[in-house]
Amino acid sequence: MQEGGTASKRGLLLKAGVAAAVVLVAGVLLLKGVDLRARSEQAIDVIRDAGPWVFFGAMALLPLVGAPLMAFTLTAGTAFAGRMTMGGVLVTTLAAIGVNLALTYWLARRALRPLLERLLKRFGYAVPRVTADNALSIALVVRLTPGPPFFLQSYLLGVAEVPFRLYMLVSWLCVLPWAAGAVVLGRGLFDGNFKVVAMGLGLIVAATAVVHLVRRRLAKRED
Questions:
Q1: Which tens digit of pLDDT belongs to each residue from 96-125?
Q2: 125 pairs with which residues across the strands?
Q3: Domain range spanning residue 52?
Q4: Domains in the chain: how many in total?
Q5: Does some domain include residue 70?
Q6: pLDDT digit string (tens) for 18-65?
Q7: 161 by DSSP, 3-state: which?
Q8: How far apart are CA 26 and CA 18, in angstroms?
């Protein structure tokens, strides 16, 4: 939970800053005549050559230390749909995210708990007090609040000691439409298939609408 919305604002500003930096770097490269499409295809070839075990293993592990999950979901379909089918990529993506969620919870509850408590406090996040009555609401509020990155939400819920089964179910269901939408969107963007792009965007827009509706209902319940 955020104290006074400060942490949420920090998270949004950080994401906006990262997005602006990416756009700026891309613009500079284009002005210098760098073929971004060719470079992207080369990067996908490297990922494809490494194989799905390496890629999806990295998807499960690297977000533990802050690597953006979208970097994996946007490239998974293009890299491996030809070998695994699109359905296989989606299933494996969600399985890798499940492994990441379980590992994050274990680190938050056991190995890294004292360090995480200090870091969360330093960055303005108050650990919510979880009871049997409010565990579901807290899990939903943390997962659906804009600002904090996905991995930080996971650590916060783990430190708060939300029951493991509830944590896994809520977290997995909340990330499912975003991850699926990003996989489909990435495949369409890299392949230049605007129909697939529209499908991916449709999933993300639908997920955004559902999140907005659930947050409004949670806010009414709290009032």
A1: 999 999 999 999 888 788 888 787 777 677
A2: 2
A3: 6-222
A4: 1
A5: yes
A6: 444 443 444 444 444 544 455 566 777 788 888 999 999 999 999 998
A7: coil
A8: 12
